[in-house]
């Protein structure tokens, strides 16, 4: 498919999606959100894809937020629609049946920081900058940031970040647990590809169910979450991947997982 505001590339079983609106530092407008949503739906259905890397085109920004020029004259009804649209697309990314790694190469502000938080893993370049500056614009985070940030880091740190709009550099983001690794800018994509390839070599159903168990479990009490884990663990014993993975171990050979 031809896209206006994103790029989609493939490296074997790894797909890379880049937000590509350099004139607005990759800010998100409605069209970009729609393209991102359509691309994710395609990648979810593509059996050849086992992991996705999400990044920003160019070397300055991951995503500098929701598009301020686009939002300026929204009516309350349109603003609510826009917020719902963003929340829907970000939840779609969070619920993708395969892992999504955010390669945060520059500014990840507002909706950009929120987009990275909808991904499963965040790897930052030394140049990355994170923040939720919505309050400086007289608004508030609207793409899930009040919820995901408070769950990812602790609520006090999330509130400080959301109330002050302060910008955190990559090392500060690492310190508060917002990212799992910081690497030199030139090594960011290689590092993300390395992680993606390691994941892609694992049993796809096991990876998918693990993601499902974690995501569902985070929103319920631990006893119920254990049940989800046990249920999924049971179901996985009906898959070819389980037989193949365990047989390969016993036969001292590399497993050839099919994801079924
Ligand atoms: N939107 C639109 N254009 C943007 C933009 C953005 N978020 N960020 C940058 N740009 C544009 C600039 O206007 C500029 O355009 P031209 O003037 O060249 O036409 C171009 O990108 C380059 O930016 P700068 O010249 O400003 O570049 P600098 O290096 O000087 O500064 C910066 C980089 C990232 C520090 C600065 O651009 C900046 O502060 N940008 C805004 C960051 C920001 O505040 N982001 C949060 C946006 S608010 C909701 C739904 C969603 C949201 C909230 C509520 N509901 C509907 C309830 C989410 C809100 C946000 O994300």
Helix/strand layout:
Layout: E1 6-11, E2 14-19, H1 30-45, E3 51-56, E4 61-63, H2 68-71, H3 76-94, E5 100-104, E6 107-109, H4 111-118, E7 121-125, E8 129-131, H5 145-152, H6 155-164, E9 168-169, H7 170-175, E10 181-183, H8 188-200, H9 204-217, H10 222-236, H11 240-250
Parallel strand pairs: 2-3, 3-5, 4-6, 5-7, 6-8, 7-10
Antiparallel strand pairs: 1-2, 8-9
Helix pairs in contact: 1-3, 3-4, 4-5, 5-6, 9-10
Bound molecules: 4-(N,N-dimethylamino)cinnamoyl-COA.
The site of 4-(N,N-dimethylamino)cinnamoyl-COA has 24 residues, from helix 2, helix 3 and strand 6.
Q: Quick summary of this structure?
A:
The chain is an alpha/beta fold and 260 residues long. The protein has 11 helices and 10 strands. 48% of the residues lie in helices and 16% in strands.
Q: What would the keywords be for this entry?
A:
48% helix; 6-stranded mixed beta sheet; globular; binds 4-(N,N-dimethylamino)cinnamoyl-COA; alpha/beta; 260 residues; 2-enoyl-CoA Hydratase, Chain A, domain 1; 2 domains
